Each structure stands twice: as C-alpha cells, then as structure tokens.
Amino acid sequence: MSDDSSGRKNLRMPDDDQVFGVVTEHLGGNHVRVRCADGETRLGRIPGRMKYRTWINEDDVVILEPWDWQDEKGNIEWRYDEQDAEQLRREGHID
C-alpha cells in the first residue's frame, strides 16, 4: 500500500481499443449486458480465464474490449473491486 493519504492507487486503465463499462444484467452462462462509457450497450463475454476466478455481478465496473468484427459484443478484460470502482467514479472516468 502506498503512503499516499488519499489512498489513491494507480489503477489499470483501458487500452485504446477498450472501454470502461458497468454490468447491468447477468444473462446466464458467461454473458453479461454492459453499459459502456461510450454510450453503447454491449453483450460482454466472460472469458474462460476469468470465469471461475473472478465473479462478475450486476453494477460491477469492468473493462470491455469490443470485437473488431461485431462492435455490439466484446470480451470482459478486467473487473474492478468496489474501492477501485469508487476511485474511478471520483476521478470522473465513469458515472
């Protein structure tokens, strides 16, 4: 932990082809509905490497990488825990 009194961490940020999103609905299996920061709502797929290690729930903040060939779908690349999501909201990255 840093000795920064604000408790700010350097969080993982989306790459150029990734966007912040908030999970709005669990669709069963490894699919979720994600409201993305660019205004789109996409179908997010939870990849196998995350499926059993990282539980994704409604209202979780995630990084989604839209598919090149189908922009309305994408892969979940990262999930933030509650404190990190709160920091992202405070810093204005997501609403």
Automatic annotation (TrEMBL):
Pfam families: eIF-1a. It comes from the Archaea. CDD domains: S1_IF1A. GO terms for molecular function: translation initiation factor activity. The keyword Ribosomal protein does not apply. SMART domains: eIF1a. Keywords: Initiation factor, Protein biosynthesis. Residues 7-81 form the S1-like domain. Seems to be required for maximal rate of protein biosynthesis. Enhances ribosome dissociation into subunits and stabilizes the binding of the initiator Met-tRNA(I) to 40 S ribosomal subunits. Belongs to the eIF-1A family. This is Translation initiation factor 1A.
